[in-house]
Amino acid sequence: MADLGPCSSCGAPGSGIRLNNRPYCDRCADERLAAVTGWPTLPTPPPAEVIIGPDKKRHFVRYRFLRMPGGVVGLAEELGGPVHAGYRLELLCDHLADPTPLVERLPIESRAAIAQPYLKLDARYGLILAGDVVAGRLEEGDQEDEFGLPEEGPRVIVDGQSMSWGEFGELLKSHVGWSFELRLGGDPPSRGRGDTPGRITVREPSAAELRAAARALRSSDGAYILDSTHYPTPAEWATREQR
């Protein structure tokens, strides 16, 4: 998430939303959308935390709630990891539904994702699938062809690790002959299991980690560019299927 400068309302640093051509922090952007559209403001997201995975790697994860034109998004994103990589989890909620359960569910799913990785390191074969299910997200490829499309397909992010489309294919070679199902969009598969707490350590970020996360925000790419005229009112959303 790019740093667009201080919030134009409260002055908080590190704003990552441009709403109606002005930079805002998440809270001030939500308040302005609520005033314009009539939707209630969103609950306060859980505080950032450090999750130490089974491999002893530290992951600084911050949580956000954003109202988008198509619904509410609960977002968990890792800061300070490799560029264009790191854990990122999105949970969706309908405009008319109560987003409060996301306050508890988002950290649970984020911790489970780190505790139960899709990939594992094999002494003989290197990185392999840990089971018969894999999920992640797609990012733009590194090189484009004459039509502006990724030459080798999009990059794939699994367990916060970035790999090329070809590298992802190598992971699947051992499953040649299997059937498969590809589902795009929606909430990721839940990986919550009873042994999750025993596989990870969760703690509050230190002051040094908070400063490092702030630096990572300032140097990151991308931001949410929003226009309040693209948002439905509660009455419009409730009657959308009747049109």
What's a quick, concise take on this entry?
The protein has 243 residues and is an alpha+beta fold. It has helices at residues 26-37, 101-115, 165-172, 196-199, 207-219, 234-238, and strands spanning 17-19, 22-24, 49-52, 58-68, 71-79, 88-93, 119-122, 126-129, 137-139, 155-158, 161-163, 201-203, 224-226.
Which range best describes the helical content: under 10%, 10-25%, 25-40%, 40-55%, 55-70% or over 70%? 10-25%
Strand order of the largest sheet: 6-5-4-3-12
Computed structural class: alpha+beta
Low-confidence stretches: none
Distance between the termini: 36 Å
Overall mean confidence score, pLDDT: 89
Determine the strand fraction and express it as a percent band: 15-25%
Mass-distribution shape: globular
The H/E string reads EEHEEEEHEEEEEHHEHEH
Number of helices: 6
DSSP strand count? 13
Largest sheet: 5 strands, antiparallel
Rg from C-alpha positions? 19 Å
Structural description of this entry:
The protein is α+β, with helices and mostly antiparallel strands and 243 residues long. It has a domain at 117-190. It has 6 helices and 13 strands. The protein has helices at residues 26-37, 101-115, 165-172, 196-199, 207-219, 234-238, and strands spanning 17-19, 22-24, 49-52, 58-68, 71-79, 88-93, 119-122, 126-129, 137-139, 155-158, 161-163, 201-203, 224-226. The strands form 4 sheets. Strands 6-5-4-3-12 form a 5-stranded antiparallel beta sheet, with helices on both faces. A 3-stranded mixed beta sheet has the order 2-1-13. Strands 9-10-11 form a 3-stranded antiparallel beta sheet. The longest helix is centred in the middle third of the chain and has 15 residues, at 101-115. It is globular. The protein starts with 16 loop residues before the first strand and ends in a 5-residue tail after the last helix.
